[in-house]
Structure formats: structure tokens, C-alpha cells
Amino acid sequence: MADIQIISKQNGVAIVLATKKVFLGDPDGDYVAEAGALSTQVNIKRDIDTFYIVKNLDYTSIKDSAGVQIGTSRDNCVSVLNSYYFNRTSKIQELDNVDFQNTITAGQVLKFVDVGGGTLRISNEAEGAGGAANMSQSFTAPTNTGEFQDGARLITDAYGTAPSATAGTLVYFGTSNVLSVGAQSAASVATTMLTIVTDAGSGDELLVEGVVKVSSNTGWSTAKKGEALYMSTTAGAVTTTAPSTAGEFVRVVGHVVDASNSTIYFRPSPDWIEL
Asked: Among candidates 190, 207, 210, which has minimal Cα distance to 250?
């Protein structure tokens, strides 16, 4: 019998006979390969009704889309057909024109990045590099000031000029760059939207929520996990001590995650009290 082709692409599989008749299916068990009558022969049948697409076909006649023989023996051909073409459990490797950025390991959060030229890249960037979807936090402190953990929410390109800013500081939006804010600031500043400058050190990358390493843990280096944090009278800093002087603003901006490493969960309250 003449050659047949097995074509696998994304979420489909096609069996093309020498007569050009085509059988289409999904790579989830629609077809099954099995040993034929002789030691070199292979059968391929449709699983739903056990209809034989081909029967007792020499395995050397079974080719892929490029015309390359599938398998090095009858049993190997059957194994490859079933595991790779007819009943795949993982389809990530079947995607066309994908450039894997790094070695992919279990548990990573992946995203697709268009790198141009009709190529997609599967990006598995390191923890904190862009804010992955995973919201888990293991209390392992970030290494660098302003570095954030998975699940963080960011605002980027607020100014478009990448103005320099101090990583890990509590800031508000100024006219041309972010500025440090403290509990004694004017109402128009202390009650506005607050952010933390990330380790990018720029007013164009700001954290609005998430686990982050701030620039200082002065006064709260031994605080318990979960303690509330407020705007400090030291502009740009946070503290576990609520402001107490008339004219200052009491506003919770987050909670302690790992005080010894200046790591907090940042989520400013929309409410405040002016003393």
C-alpha cells in the first residue's frame, strides 16, 4: 500500500491516505494505533466506532507532514502515533513559530509575547519581573529595594520620560515626576493616589498593590507579620506607629510581611483621618 501521512498541528490531527482521502480528528484519543497482523504492520482505527482507517500497513509507509518515516519499528511507530499524534496530554510543544525564552519548569506562569516577524515567545520571566498572575507569597523577601513579588499590580509609562525616582519609596503623582509623601503632607497630597517606586527606579514604573521591599524599616524592623503600616512623618517612608500630631493624616497603606527585610504588602486604604 502507498504511503499515508499523519499531520499534527495545534489542536488537530489529520490522516491523509494515498487516495487523498482525509480523516480529521482531535489529538485526544479520536484515533488509535495498534499492532497489525505481522511484526512490521500497523493498524489505525477510529476509536468511537472502531472503524479501521488502515489495516496491516507496513510501518515504513507511515510518514509525517515532511515525508519522514514515523517510528523505527512497528512497536515504536505505534507508540509514537498514540503518544504524539493521537492522544497527546500536553500540547505546548505543538505550537507553531514559538521561541521558548528559557527552560520551562512545572509551576511557572507563562505569557505570550509578540517579538515580531510572525513569532510568538513564551515568556517565563523570573518572579517579580513584570508581575505574573500567581498571587501566592511564601514570605521569602525580595532581594532588592523596590523589587516586588508575583501578583503585584503596576502602573507604567505615567510620564513617558522615565524620570529617575528612589526605589522603595512612598510617592504621589507630581507634575513631571513622582514625589515623596508623608503623614504631615497637605491634604491634596496625603489623600491622593499613593504608589511605591519599584526597583526600576523610575516614575514610569510604580506599584499600586502587592508585596514589595521598601527603602527603609526604621522604627519597625522587629514588627510582627500582619501589623498595619501608616504614612510616616519621614516623607517616602512607612511606619507601624500611627501619626498623632494635629494636622497629620492617619492612613493605612499596607501591612508588614517581613519586617527584618523591609517587605510589606502595599495596599493603601481609600480612607483617612486628619488629626
From this structure: 190
Residue-level pLDDT at 134: 47
| Cβ 11 vs Cβ 27: under 8 Å | yes
Closest among 186, 173, 176, 166 to 231, alpha carbons compared: 186
Q: What is the pLDDT of residue 131?
A: 42
Q: Which amino acid is at 114?
A: D
Give the separation between CA 224 and CA 118, rounded to whole angstroms: 51
Contact 80, 44 (CB under 8 A): no
Cα–Cα dist 10/33, whole Å: 20
Q: What are phi and psi of 45, to 5 degrees?
A: -130, 160
pTM (predicted TM-score): 0.56
Domain ranges of the chain: 4-91, 97-123, 153-274
Residue with cell 524620570: 163
pLDDT at 91: 47
Please work out, in degrees rounded to the nearest 5, the angle formed at the alpha carbon of residue 136 by the alpha carbons of 146 and 144.
20
**How high is the mean pLDDT in each 10-residue block of the chain (275 residues)?**
82 90 89 96 94 95 93 94 80 53 62 67 55 52 87 92 97 97 94 96 95 96 96 96 95 96 95 94
The angle formed by the CA atoms of residues 132, 125 and 11, to the nearest 5 degrees, is 80
pLDDT given for residue 29 in this prediction: 85
Distance from C-alpha of 238 to C-alpha of 265, rounded to nearest angstrom? 12
The grid coordinates listed for 62 are 507511515
